[in-house]
Amino acid sequence: MAANPVKPRIIFVAKFGAVLLVLYAVIALNQVNDAVIVPFTEVVARGSAALLRGVEGGVDAQGTIMRSARFALDVRNGCNGVEATLLLAAAILAFPATLRSRLIGLVICCVAIELLNIVRLSSLFWLGEHYRQVFDLFHVAVWQSLIILAAISMFVLWSWKFAERPLAKSR
Amino acid sequence: MLKDLWPSLAKGAAGFALGLALWWGLSAPYARLLATLTEPLIRMVERPAVTRLIAGGTELTIDRDDFPRSSPRPGLTLMDLTANIVLLTTLFAVNKRPISDRNIRGFVLASLALLAVHIAAIIVNVESIYALRLGPWSERNYGPFARNFWGAGAHFYSLIGVFGAGFALWWLFRPSNEVPADSRKGDRRKTAKNTRAPSR
User: Fold this and answer.
1) What is the tens place of the pLDDT at every residue in B127-149?
2) Is this structure's pTM higher than 0.90?
3) Taking the domains of chain B in order of start, what are their residue ranges?
4) CA–CA distance, B164 with A152 (Å, rounded to integer)
5) Which pLDDT tens digit goes with each residue over A14-46?
6) B160–A24: do the CB atoms touch at under 8 Å?
7) Is this complex's ipTM strictly greater than 0.90?
8) How many residue pairs bridge chain A and chain B with CB atoms within 8 Å of each other?
9) Of A159, A20, A150, nearest to A98 (Cα)?
């Protein structure tokens, strides 16, 4: 009898949604936001400013704000890469794989996403300085979608090529 | 693996451009459609039924019959809520045969489901505005639980739900041979990579 291809998808999506809600609930707590998310965002802002200084001088970061003489950018939730990381983590955790390959996938993919996010923030800051008229388009549509697409691509690649499937229970 | 990369990137870029054009170009008529479909649903559950959603460009203005005439009306930017159209179009474009009947059928079904997601997102955002942004009126009409519920719902959707929904709908409606992860029949019973099945 042919296996129903819809059922595993529904199970995956249900698990993905549940894990996403739990992860959101964790980062939405004020204590987690103040102790983890904000300091992390400051690191991301500093990293992005450092990358930009390699291209042009005069960019600095104070707290979550990147600034130069001509432009300033406050890095907030939604721009710190955490949303893409949560999406990726929820997909990896919902996918049937061994704990080992999940952990390896989580660490490698999350680091890659955050590095890409640093490139995103640097390029957005540069656009804000030099091409303000297209900043909103790139901020809302282009980079936001690209970073999520990168996260999904990493998940698909991991699930396809690298995820070790768990052994079936012996009968 | 690398030989598949460039065609996939090219299809992804084309899908991304198409999605961006659809999202940007059709934003005004889509806002009117969303207003037309969402308003009756909101009015169905509120007593008295007073909410009116007025589409203007890419924004919805929220009006109520019981608002004072002189007070400003809150608005809702739809572009942020509907940005997952770009994601969904790109993901379907990257599928193996993007213009096959099965892929297009899947894309249409996923888009219809996304329309339902957008309607739900607008309802949550309107309730969130009612619960949190109308000062003493909000406090009079919404308790602490309702204020947290609608506020968190709107924040969840804007932060990760918007893209989570796009990804989930692609996963549900993509043709079954696209990603072998769930089509490797009996894979759970086999070993994978470095593991070995117990011998009998």
Assistant:
1) 999 999 998 989 999 999 999 99
2) no
3) 2-26+78-177
4) 10
5) 999 999 999 999 999 999 999 999 999 999 999
6) yes
7) no
8) 106
9) A159
